[in-house]
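User: Quick sanity check before I run a bigger batch. Here is a single chain. Can you write out its predicted 3D structure?
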Amino acid sequence: MEVAVVGGGPGGALTAAILAGLGHDVVLLEAATRYRWRACGVFAAPAAAAALRRLGVSEAQLARVARPLAAMGLETPGGARVRLTYGGTGTLADSAVGFDREALDTSLLAWASEAGAQVRTGARVARVVF
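Assistant: Done. Predicted structure follows.
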């Protein structure tokens, strides 16, 4: 292997896909054997969808994993509330998005594999020797 990517979340899967697409010999090692729910990345700024587009995610792929969101409500344990909005047209073109993380993560791993990366799930990395 020329490149080993540890972790199959969005960052790892996109890194593996890009490097494999550039012709590198890539293996992606993901400890989990199936998707695990995560709260992080469920609500994202408009820049997240724009970044995925720049990295080669098509509009059709994006539409399968993201929905435009008008706002997000936050509440503290003490009861203070705030509504967070980003504006935009209410479309994926320029609005905040809610990601279906299971669909997103699964799609990005498939994209890495299609780009030529070897995706190995259930692979725990105990140490790295250079």
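The mean pLDDT is 91.

User: Great, the batch can go ahead then.
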